[in-house]
Amino acid sequence: MRTAKISELKAKLSAHIAYVKRGEEVLILDRNTPVARLVPAAPDDDLSERTRRLIAKGVLAPPKNQTGKRFQPEPAKGKMISREVMDSVWEEERADR
pTM of this prediction? Predict the structure, then answer.
């Protein structure tokens, strides 16, 4: 979570709004005392009532990606793990069952 004093927020409002659009929260300080929080506006339609209550209490944070797309893992970059190593890892996992 980012923090911003009121004077800084006034001077760089567009930059702070850009952070919020990307899913971050900005805590606004008045003389180093928290007074407000800028959070992304999220549609409440796709969240359950329980989830909304937990977000309101601060127990959960709303999802940063509101596009509705499922998570898609990216291919690994760099050196790949050999097939032999992966086979031995899988065998160890299966042996513990």
Answer: 0.46
